Structure formats: structure tokens, C-alpha cells
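The instructor's notes for this session suggest beginning with a concrete chain rather than abstract definitions. Hand out the sequence below and ask the class to guess, before any prediction is shown, which regions might be ordered.
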Amino acid sequence: MNRTGLAIALVIGAVVGLLFGLYPRLDIAISALFYDRQANLFIVNAQPWVMDARDAARWLITLIVAPAGLALIGKLIMPKRRMLMSARAALFLALTLALGPGILTNVILKDHWGRARPIDISELGGTDRFTAWWDPRGDCPDNCSFVAGEPSGAFWTLAPAALAPPQWRLLAYGGALTFGAAIGLLRIAGGGHFFSDVVFAGVFTFLLIWATHGLLFRWRGSPMTDAAIERFLARAGAAMYAAAARAVPRKPAPAFTPGTLPEQLASLPHAPIVRGTFSNMPPDKDS
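After discussion, reveal the predicted structure:
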């Protein structure tokens, strides 16, 4: 996560954006390579292993981020306990996954950028109008093509790769990029996304990871230290417990009456009650 990686990502985004902006039908030409016009379908979608591969990718991402989520939740539940992993690492993984593939990709872009998917455009067997990557005025109402959701999640593995030991980091980056490209190719071959959708999914995800990594790890003067994050989570956990205690209604004390005195005394610790009547008391010696 250095300036070289930032420069490469920006150059890729600029080149692909300009090329596919000037010649948008390149996206159709690439997707058409995987489309069988005689059968009127994307051949990959007929393969039974496709959904298994997509599910496996989702599970892999979940398993990678699970320790970070458990560490953050555990600190909220047990504010006085030390976290099971670095607070910055846990926050970095959870935050980048939530902001990148979560909010930026699936909430902001895919639900508001009306680009129809390849499988839905008229040129490839559908009925919707094709639009370039930069044009949000397509026929898709929601969950649209730009940007690619599953590849965005796959490219998110650049975040845990950035936390790998220095001697393994380059290999980890290579594995993350290969994983993202493979899931992207699978979605292109299935008519789920255009080539430019996948490229911008990778670029946007990387830029968000790069900025978050700088805030938490690289930039001098940042207040985001492990101790500061743990203190914040501890205060948040304590406030959560206090709010829960205030939300639980207190049982009012029962009203006192002479008839309830024995029961109230019996409820006190170490206060045995001797029950009796005047009729079974020993006689007075003087009577």
C-alpha cells in the first residue's frame, strides 16, 4: 500500500475509463465472446459448478473477515478484556469490507447507476438498452451492472494481503489480484457484468483500501492507534451496558401492610421468622 500501487490503480482507471468511454461497445464485444447466439444464452451459466464457485468465494471472504468481526464485537461485549488481535487490523478489515463492497458498491452504485447487465441488453438476447460505463441513465431499476459486486468483494482481499508479513506481502497481493480477476472473469462469462464493471470494481475497492490503510497505519500524526481504538470500543461497550440497564424497568417495591410483614422479613437474608400464636406460649410461673 504505497504510492506506486496508487499510481498503477489510477493509471488503470484512467486508461480503461477513457478507452471504454470513447468506444463503449468494446464492452459488448468482450461479453459477446461468451454468448452463444444459437442457444441464446451465456454458456457458462449452464455449468453446474458456477454457483458452487461463487458460493465458495463468498465463504472465503466471510472466513477471512470473521476474526476481525469477532474481535470488535468481543471488545464491545467485554470492554475490560484485551482484544484477540490488533485493534487497527480488526478495524481495517471490517471497515474496508463494509465501506467498499458493502456501501460504495452495493448501496451507492449498483442501486443508483442504471446500467443494464450484459444478459439483459438487446444485443445479447435481452430487452434493455445498452449504456456506457459513465452513463447512469440505463433501464435497470436496481442491483445493476456498474460496478461488479462479487468481484469487488474478491478484490477486497487486497486488505488482508496488506497485513501479511513483508516477506509474503507481494505474494499475497498477487493472490488477491488473481482471485479478484478470476471472479471478475466468471461474472463476465456469465453475462452478469461488463469488463469495465469489473475493472472499476477493482480500482474503487483498491482506492478505498489504500486510503483506509494510510489513515490507520501509514500517515504520521494519525490518532488511530491500537490503544486509542481499544479505549473507544471499551467506552462504547460500557455505554451500551449502561443504556441497557436504563432500558430495563425496575420492579417497584411492594407496599407495606401489617399482613405482609412476615413475608417481607423472611425475604431478608439471615432473618428467620418464628411463627407462633399466644396459645402455644409457655405458661407464666406466677399465674
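Then share the key points. The mean pLDDT is 90. DSSP finds ten helices and two strands in the chain.
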